[in-house]
Amino acid sequence: MALSLKWSIKRITTKFEFKIARSAESYYDVVILELSDGINTGYGEAAPSKRYEKGPEAILALIEANKHQILSLSVEDYETRQAALENMFPQSYALQAALDTAFWDLHGRQVGKPLWELFKASQELVTSSYTIGISDLSVIPEKLKEATPYPLLKIKLGTDYDHDIMRAIRAETDKVLRVDVNEGWKTLDDAKRGTEWLVQENVEFLEQPMPADQLDDIAKLREFSPLPLVADENSVRPEDVPGLVGAYDGINIKLMKCGGLSNALKMVELSQKHQFDIMLGCMVETSIGISAMSQLGSFARWLDLDGNVLLADDPYKGVGNAAGEIILSNKSGLGVELR
Fold this sequence. Notes:
By secondary structure, this protein is of the alpha/beta class. It is 33% helix and 23% strand. The chain folds into two domains: 4-112, Enolase-like, N-terminal domain (Enolase-like, domain 1), CATH 3.30.390; 117-338, Alpha-Beta Barrel (TIM Barrel), CATH 3.20.20.120.
């Protein structure tokens, strides 16, 4: 049966301004795909990161120019399909991810099985963190109130007032924290001081403390640091993983960076081979993207799949999130539907 593809841009708004070391946003435009065989519809989402590629309008132009080639791809043969997607769209990992997800979702719906089952994963997942973005100190109590049900918090640092942020957080809560610097510490000395200080703050691990192009310094920091180091901006694609041995203890896998579920599976396998702890993360995404990555959740030691619960109004329903407990359904494919 012939396939058809629909696409549109949706604006998603966050409950609070979402700020990290290099950017601040209160809304995001994402591209939503609907891939249909006439009976079943698979969903995909592209949430492009400004660090890696152009915005949603550029993605629409790529789809328009390659629609016929996209519709000729195999629903079942994911390896051949992924190779074709990478050849067609080397400039957009987010579009690769959206299309790969839509094809996987359609396949799961066609065979009547949830993707986690097709991936030989399970429904038993560790607790996900809830992210507190960089903000004015006066807003931190309100953010922490919103995060009250969540036992694990991920804190964004990488500012010139990191100590003030942590003091404000510790004045409100003694929860276990995970810290993400988003490349914000620029020198090895700064990173060492930051790491030494955070050890006293009940921090579980440190994510991407320094710029990705300073891998030698990160390796030196790992020798010094009592906290595990987790790669984010350094762990973009499957081919990145082997080169991180000795510099990191774990890697963060994100669909919008790696190019979709097919490549995420490869990164899981490579991480296991090289004995990295696995973290599954996300951008600010709807329940389409979060539901997709959650299908691999049981392979991870750490989860940071909160992009949909940071939204003021998620247009889709998918996996549940009960105070950080990700709830995978037995519905076929992603189990996603329009709200």
